[in-house]
Structure formats: C-alpha cells, structure tokens
Design a protein that fits this description.
The protein is mainly beta and 294 residues long. It has one helix at residues 260-271, and strands spanning 4-9, 11-15, 18-24, 35-46, 53-59, 62-70, 73-77, 82-85, 90-94, 99-104, 114-124, 135-139, 146-149, 152-161, 164-165, 174-181, 185-188, 196-203, 206-208, 211-213, 217-221, 228-231, 236-242, 250-252, 255-257.
C-alpha cells in the first residue's frame, strides 16, 4: 500500500480458553470505516478434549460477521436460530437494540480432533439503526461473489466494490474483499475503494515503497484512493473499509453505541440477567467483566 498511515500488529487476547489475535479496536485507530472490531482466530488444532465454546453473551449497536477458513461453529441466538457455519460461508448477525448468542463446537465434533481458523468481525451500525430489531442471516459460500482478474482471485465477502455486491445485507457503505495471488505482481485498486481502507495479510507478504509486510499485520491507508502495492506469489490478503460515521462510537465489552447511555442500560440489563435466553443454551453465560481492557 503506497500510502501507509499506520501498521497494527495482532495482539494476543483471551476469549474464554481460546486465544485470538486482535487487530481492532486499537488505541491509535478505533475504527476503519464502520469496522470497529477484528479478531483473527487461530489457526489452532483442538484435540478430542478441547472445544471452542464462547458462552452466551450480549451485543447492542453492531453487526457481527463470522468468516471461517477451517473448522466449524454452531451459532445459537435469542431469535431461535441454530446454524452451523463452515469455511467460506458468512454468519451476519445484527444486534440492534439487543441480542444474545453463543458460539460452540458442534456436537458431532466435540469428541474428535478438529481445526479452527477464521475471522470474527464487528461492524458498527449507523446511528439511526442502533436500536433496530435484531436480525440474523446465514449466507452460503456459493452466494459470495467470486471472480478472477489479471491472475488474481477475488472474493467480495461483504459490501460493494469492483461493480459487485455481496449477498450479506449490510447497513452502511463498506467492503470486505479477499484477494489471492498465484504470482508476484503489482496491484492498484484504489479507484475501486472509498472512505477508509485497511489491508490485512493472512498469508504471504506485500511490499510497499521497498518495505516488506508480513502476516498478522493490518496496514491502514492514509487515503483509500491510493491503494497500490506489490503482492507476493501465494499470498492471501483482506481489504476492509468503507465510509466512516460522523459520530464517535463508544465500545464497552460487547456493546457499541453512539450514546453512552445505551451502553449503560445494556450493561445493567445483562448484569440483571434480563436479556432473553437462548433456546437450547439457557444455563451458562459470560458475566460482565469487572476489569475491561478492550
């Protein structure tokens, strides 16, 4: 990327018994466009005694996007959805005024070895939609736009770019693009982007102004319209971004809002355990943390 403004390294964070690499939020850059939270999960191999179990927890004011490279997760929520997500598909859950969900290893995999690798993302909602009714959508891998151009493989996971529109029902102008390379070449896609942009390296490397950038780095651009870089052979990268919101977003644990009072109310509601319960996952839950580092 020819106009790198900031380099964000993954930071190890514990989610229950599972470690992830956190990219956003970052103290110098809380959001990239409407993207407010990006976690890289794995890659990790779990044995027959280890499982991925994120207990029931609440959200407000955002949409979550789950995208797996390996493994499988069973999503359950207070709307009654119970959906298994596999690699290449997208789970898109809009919390709005409030939803509770859990993410666990499916029952049929709980007593065998399994792999886990993927991205967990939050996208803030526009101010006027922060209190909308919650929703959930599962988009199969075959519904995600894919195409090849100049020897590069593109996938539009969410949003709009390159004249394509993803099936993921987003609520703001954004893009999440996967690019895979088979050879070393220069990419100039700034004319296809808008708002703010960040480039995340999953595999391989990219070069800009003679500097080499490696996996687990998020490169934030000064201007998305100047997005030009060299991608090495056999690399996989993700471009995130879109139009930023005019208003500041507050984040406290799993709650996001432009009005801090909405977060205070949600926090109290969770501490009182007055959110709806998840059918089939009513007993366990994640308590509100007494000390929050996010």
């Amino acid at each position: 990327m020819s106009n790198i403004n900031l380099i964000i390294e993954e930071r190890a964070v514990s989610i229950g018994k599972f470690m992830v690499g956190r990219l956003l939020p970052f103290r110098q850059k809380r959001m990239v466009g409407p993207f407010i939270y990006i976690d890289h999960m794995g890659p990790v191999k779990l044995n027959e005694r280890e499982n991925f179990d994120v207990l029931p927890h609440p959200h407000i004011g955002l949409s979550t996007l789950t995208f797996l490279f390996e493994g499988s997760i069973m999503h359950r929520d207070t709307l009654g959805n119970a959906v298994e997500i596999k690699p290449g598909a997208v789970n898109w859950m809009t919390a709005g005024k409030g939803i509770v969900h859990s993410e666990r290893t499916p029952e049929y995999l709980r007593h065998s070895d399994k792999n886990m690798h993927g991205l967990q993302i939050w996208v803030a909602l526009p101010k006027e939609l922060e209190q909308m009714e919650p929703e959930f959508f599962h988009i199969d891998a075959g519904q995600i736009p894919e195409w090849t151009e100049d020897g590069l493989q593109f996938k539009l996971v969410a949003g709009e770019a390159f004249g394509h529109k993803s099936a993921v029902p987003v609520y703001s102008k954004l893009f999440m693009i996967e690019i895979k390379s088979s050879r070393r070449q220069t990419i100039n896609i700034g004319h296809e982007l808008y708002g703010e942009a960040g480039l995340y390296i999953l595999e391989g490397s990219v070069e800009s102004d003679g500097n080499i950038y490696l996996p687990k780095q998020l490169l934030v651009a000064k201007e998305s319209s100047l997005c030009e870089f060299i991608i090495e052979a056999n690399s996989t990268i993700y471009i995130f971004g879109g139009e930023p919101f005019a208003e500041e977003r507050f984040i406290d644990w799993n709650f996001v809002a432009s009005d801090i009072d909405l977060i205070k109310n949600a926090k109290q509601k969770w501490m009182d355990q007055s959110f709806d319960k998840i059918p089939g996952d009513e007993i366990e839950f994640v308590p509100y943390p007494t000390f929050n580092k996010k």
